[in-house]
Amino acid sequence: MKKILLLKFFLFSSLILSAQCFETLNFGGAHTVGKKPDGTLWGWGAASYGNLLTTNLTEPLPIQLGTETNWNNISNGTNNTFAIKNNGTLWGCGSNQYGSLGVNSSNLNFTLFQQITTANNWVKVAPTFGFTIALKADGTIWAWGQNDNYQLGNSPASPEQLFPLQVGTDTDWVEIATGTNRISFAIKADGTIWGWGKNSSSIIVLGSGTATVAIPTQVGTDTDWLTMSVGSQHILAKKVDSTLWSWGGGAGLGVGGTPPVTNTPQQISTDKWISFSAGTNTSFGIKEDGTLWAWGFNTNGQLGDGTSTDRLAPTQIGTETNWATVEAGKYATTVATKTDGTVWYWGRNYYGEFGNGSSYGTAYYNTPTQTIGICVTQAVGGGPTYINSAISTVTSTNANGVGTAVGDSVRLIGVVHCQNYSSSGYDFVIIDSNNDGITLKSPTSINGYVPTEGDEIEVEGKITQINGLLQIIPDNILINQSNAPLQTPMIITVLDETTESQSIKLENLSLVNGETMWPSNGNIEVSNGTDNFTVNVPAVSALAGTPTPGTNFHLTGLGKQNDASNPYNDGYQIYPCGVTPVSTGPTYTNSTIGAISGVNPDGTGISIGDNVSVTGVVHCQNYSSSGYDLTMIDSNNDGINLFSLVNVNGYIPTEGDEIKVDGEIEQFNGMLRINPASITVLQQGAALQTPTNTGLLDEATESQSIKLENLSLVNGETIWPTNGNIEVTNGTDDFTVNVPSASAIAGTPTPTDFFNLTGIGKQNDSSLPYDSGYEIFPCGVEPLCNIDVSTTLDTGTVTVTDLGLNYQWIDCADSSVITGETGESFTATVAGDYAVIITDGNCVDTSACVFVDVLSLEENELKGISVYPNPISDELNINNEKGVLVSMEMIDAKGSVVVSSKEASNSFTFNTGELNSGVYILIVRSEKSVKTFKVVK
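The line above is the sequence of T9SS type A sorting domain-containing protein; the predicted structure tokens follow.
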């Protein structure tokens, strides 16, 4: 299929085409993780904490992280890695110091991804050294890890928080960021910026000497903040006009001169910026013209300008004009990408940060160095990285109607529906194959593209929200195909959040005020006799200025919203696509199934002959091969039979179809049913009612989803009949099972043991009063199972309780089968959650997952370690009474290794007399374990 590129296009070089290409890259303290187009994760750099799912100290070349292919986005901490799957669940691995992984465990490290709670609505993560904050789709922020300076936004201050806690009660957060100096920031949907934690350099409470801020506190009064990046002492923040601002302290401010602190946000030049990142006393940014700039401390050439001169104002790096993204690590390395997809690093490469196969180099690279063999497919166009997203993902809102993806740069695919409502730019809707839609809005056209209904287009742009309406502002548009299939308009009776940017239909309407002409760029009110609806008719609408219908009519259009204030729960309206006059015929009264299924004392229906319009969900199957014999049940669990000798509108029933039926109420042999005149599918895959357990078939079970348990065959038949009855019993009462020829079980073998039966309650009573002949049409048969799925855990071994059956042990992390483990017990060699699938004949059940902590057994070899003196002076001693240490290293506050050894021994002595005063992190390793200590001089 040929694609037409409407904004920009380029060709990768042959070198890049043969490289490992990633959709996105994320750089942490000293490691990079990327996601490939196939959904797999790969990483390189520092790995000693398990953050790359390996026990090696470094991984200088890309390695795959596990085998899963359903990852969505990545966020690296200083020594750990977080990733969100396509289903919205959050996972982490690596360092768990202070509980910073949030997995409710005090284990120091994890070398396998661990799920963080069971929530499935995570959208963003902002990890840093020692703590993490994360954003959910409902607009709430959650935090875990170290909280000694209230950086989690919760009281009291504490050394560690092992699992996520909500930060406050607000539900309108849209952006989050953290700094290495125990600081957290967030932006709300109203464009205000808030901070909490350590108030170093008055970074939160501007101009104040307050040491800490315990709860989210607004910074300034501006309401146009878009996104931000937080360093150790300063913050960079971009406004909606793409200008860049800074405040806090240190050389990374970029405002010139030598101010130690700025008490108000200061603008960094008058340019517009497309990418920026705050590091440790450093800052980096890319301007709109694609040039790369840096400022801050430059002792080791970490700014990348080829010198070691500190820069207090932005200094251009090289002369290239095709830079796309830049990201500063937590230590001394920076990565950037160009629009040709190439990846460049500078600074330190000691831990293999560059991903080029080298490591343990002590030299600093003071100019950008390309990593050959790695590329980024989305770093194109000189702009942001666009994340492939489903429309449903970027149109979710919190409880206040605020979009959870506002500000995100995404790539969407959808089909143009109806028309463009703008005469100079764009105001149209695209809807994808899942029937999820979004409005595409732009004041100007993109390279002359003229929208046509049926165009399937690929759009790259940023998510915004105006007056409650979620929109994408396009940067690029590609046409995939023309004349793509359109979604059938959904018949609705309410305009609300679910109808926004959807193709919808309002039926049986009239004009509230009797206008004879549709307005041109104005509103008009219509009514279905129960509710009124606002129709917004833009000047370029096909209806604008044309005569209105003289009679009742149906209206198709696109759902919109125009609500000027938060919460966005009002102002819903429809943009018109077309009008259809209603033909004469029976008038169908909107009703509920419960209202039309009542009976008199003799069993006759009270609504026989009524023409009604009812809605329900198809349950089980259609029992007719030529027309309809099915049951629809509504949300109140009221059901009715739908019967017709022929198909209507070509509709083919599928369980889970929510349908609207216009028809006449009939009764046959006591069975109430509706004879359909029209059938409209409202949605597919709707929720089903759980079958009701019953021991009696009567009027209450008619057209209900029911379940009979502990059954056997009265006459011992071996085959279910084809279009006939069969008797079953629960040992107390007998029941008639009517098996139509179209039934899924017709002509199949009957159970050989006790069984349960689900089905639809029916009635076949040929004479008044209609009080007998109750039966069940079968939906499914299941064996009666009594497997005991309990297990016991003893020193790493899990054992089943129910013996003598068939077993298969599985890894709960991904439900994968553990090859060869089919016995009554299982001994884990790797810490994790495990369960067993137990099979007894046709009965299959699975036990609960049990956590086996193998790592705690291995950590015993480091329990005898001692480090002294502490505080240290001229000498540091390390002894291990329970085993050999294979390596040690001591790291200063800047992340530099000051002392190290890789000789295996049970004791070390080091001269520390020349070390500067301060706090150091000591890392010692045995064959199986890693342990860290804080050492003070």
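Note on the example: The chain is about 0% helix and 45% strand. The radius of gyration is 33 Å.
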